[in-house]
Design goal:
The chain is an alpha/beta fold. About 40% of the residues lie in helices and about 20% in strands. One of its GO terms (molecular function) is iron-sulfur cluster binding.
């Protein structure tokens, strides 16, 4: 039997009528009943929600958000320059018929010199005219193929710099990185940039500057101000830089092979930071190295060092957690690759003549930007990430799995993932899926968490 509703003495004094109080109590009762009904139906609703999550995972949300190597994002004029880069070299440093005939053999000898004899070679090998010519015709051309593809696909905000900014390329050689940036980022061509190029070979710097000016002329753009600096890593400059770059620099420093990689990472980090303009809240650095385990190990350790010094990884990382592909012995190393089917025809012919064909272009890299918050700690995700989703970067090509299945390795805040899927992805693609609520099983071979899409 329901309790009889009556007016309290203070309600009577306030002029509240009994019928109004009855209506109010009735509405309150209905509201409480609805709340209790929601609580009682919560498990059933949760089950329906999980079905919805499964439906979303299977359809709408499993698609690439970003691709590190999409050829579609390369500017058309840059594609033309890269396709005809041999003609660009010919216009500044022509070879006679005999030199052209000997070029494949010289490239092959240079490759042997840079790999098999790397412990004995001198760092100043680019001061030798024959070796420098072979390097530019083969290695610089291939490096432009790799770097232009990469720089064209990194988030444009990373290259959003002020006019009159100062850039510095460490170990610049024949200005490969400045060339790649000029080709891949048309918005930077419009900027008034002073580009310091540091290398121990003055001959290589001069060779590269001539090519750079030729490329700028072909693109009908005002060239950046190139400042050639002969010196090694650590040499003093007249001014600090807003943006520092290096490509294949640390792979060349063979004198440091005897030192442990964690020591080298800290050493190199301090040297690079000494060049950056710290009053610039958006100071940036990008490191690109070959995609071999030793180089990838160093890149991963430098990622940790830079994060401890207040820089966050813009790309390729999708998180701030410990790198799950740090290149430790027996583990996976962070590297990305793309097929060279669309590489310049003449470059592929030259590579075959030199007996050095390339089917894949591989690299390891991290792009850093200074954090206004200071030191980076923990597994903070990027500001545009939502907790119900998890982003990951595909780090491998297709893997054949037992039972006729297939998948890919991926890097995420949950660590190394083995993504089992029938969908096709490519190395370097960033995908986002709904965050799995259940504990993921572990792959016995790799130690990766298995995520089925």
């Amino acid at each position: 039997m329901e309790e009889k509703i009556q007016l309290k003495w203070y309600e009577k004094r306030q002029g509240i009528k009994l019928k109004d109080k009855i209506k109010s109590e009735q509405r309150k009762k209905e509201f409480l009943e609805k709340q209790n009904l929601k609580k009682n139906n919560a498990p059933e609703k949760k089950q329906l929600s999980s079905k919805r999550i499964y439906s979303i995972q299977k359809s709408k949300f499993v698609k690439p958000l970003e691709d590190l190597f999409s050829a579609e994002n390369i500017p058309e004029d840059a594609k033309k320059i890269i396709e005809d880069f041999d003609k660009v070299i010919e216009s500044t440093h022509p070879l006679n018929s005999k030199q052209k005939l000997l070029l494949p053999r010289q490239i092959r000898s240079l490759s042997h010199f840079l790999t098999d004899e790397r412990g004995e070679r001198r760092l100043g090998y680019m001061n030798q005219t024959v070796l420098l010519s072979a390097y530019v015709h083969y290695y610089t051309w291939w490096n432009l193929v790799r770097l232009v593809r990469l720089f064209s696909n990194i988030d444009k905000n990373f290259f959003d710099v002020k006019d009159s900014s100062v850039f510095l390329d460490l170990g610049s050689g024949p200005l490969t990185v400045p060339l790649a940036l000029f080709l891949s980022r048309p918005e930077l061509r419009k900027k008034c940039i002073t580009f310091y190029c540091l290398d121990i070979s003055q001959q290589a710097l001069a060779f590269g500057e001539n090519i750079f000016l030729s490329v700028a002329a072909r693109l009908k753009c005002e060239p950046w101000k190139i400042v050639r600096v002969k010196g090694e890593l650590g040499s003093a400059l007249k001014e600090k830089a807003d943006f520092v770059t290096s490509a294949n620099l640390f792979n060349e420093l063979c004198d440091d092979f005897k030192n442990p990689p964690d020591f080298l990472a800290k050493k190199y980090t301090e040297q690079i930071l000494s060049y950056l303009k710290f009053e610039n809240e958006n100071a940036r650095y990008i490191i690109v190295e070959p995609g071999d385990p030793r180089s990838a190990r160093l890149v991963s350790l430098m990622r940790d060092s830079f994060m401890r010094r207040g820089f966050f990884p813009v790309s390729p990382c999708t998180h701030f957690c410990q790198c799950p592909m740090d290149g430790k012995k027996g583990g996976k190393w962070c590297n990305y690759a793309f097929k060279t089917d669309n590489a310049p025809t003449e470059l592929k012919k030259l590579s075959e003549k030199s007996e050095l064909p390339k089917e894949r272009a591989v690299l390891s890299f991290v792009a850093f930007q200074k954090s206004k918050a200071g030191q980076i700690d923990g597994c903070n995700c990027f500001s545009d990430e939502r907790p119900e989703f998890i982003s990951m970067r595909i780090t491998s090509e297709l893997i054949k799995l037992p039972g006729g299945r297939s998948g890919y390795y991926a890097c995420s805040e949950k660590g190394l993932l083995l993504v089992v899927t029938t969908q096709q992805f490519f190395s370097g693609q960033k995908i986002r899926v709904l965050n799995p609520q259940k504990k993921l099983p572990i792959d016995s071979k790799s130690g990766a968490c298995i995520l089925e899409l």
